[in-house]
Design goal:
The structure is a single chain. This protein is an alpha+beta fold and about 130 residues long. The chain has one helix spanning about 5-30; strands spanning about 40-45, 50-55, 60-65, 70, 75-85, 85-95, 100-105, 115-120, 125-130. It has 2 domains: about 1-30; about 40-130, Immunoglobulin-like, CATH 2.60.40. Strand 3 and strand 4 form a beta hairpin. The longest helix is centred in the first third of the chain and has 26 residues, at about 5-30.
């Protein structure tokens, strides 16, 4: 049976297109949770990682992840500036296990407070996260 070059090219292109579609849909699904809060906080992105800031009473908890996967923060650090109206408050975060860092505040935060937190990952990468608290 002779090989039809046009059919072979069509079959190749169709197979390539289907494979590409599956790969793209897989990466889209991997990003489905990207940016969604998993701990009831506010999410921000800093290039290679994301942070979720949870404010409860006088404690700020920062959860670090990479595409939904927790990033171990042992050996990492974070410091930030909290903006409440025109007042700036500096804060230092300490590791409290797994992918969490915490800072204690002098008082509870009002709605609309803003925070800029610089995070240094254990591997040396760093980035700034910007949050507006609800």
């Amino acid at each position: 049976m002779p090989i039809n070059p046009k059919k072979s090219i069509r079959l190749f292109l169709l197979t390539t297109l289907m494979t590409t579609g599956l790969l793209v849909s897989g990466s889209v699904l991997a990003h489905a949770d990207h940016g969604k809060p998993m701990h009831g906080g506010v999410v921000a992105e800093a290039g290679a990682f994301q942070g979720e800031l949870v404010a409860k009473a006088r404690t700020l908890t920062l959860h670090i992840s990479n595409h939904g996967e927790p990033v171990a923060m042992a050996g990492g650090s974070a410091k930030g500036v909290l903006l409440i109206g025109n007042q700036k408050t500096e804060m230092a975060f300490i590791s409290t296990g797994a992918n969490r860092l915490e800072a204690t505040l002098p008082s509870a935060l009002p709605q609309g407070s803003k925070a800029v937190i610089t995070v240094k990952l254990p591997n040396g990468n760093s980035g700034a996260l910007r949050f507006t608290l609800p």
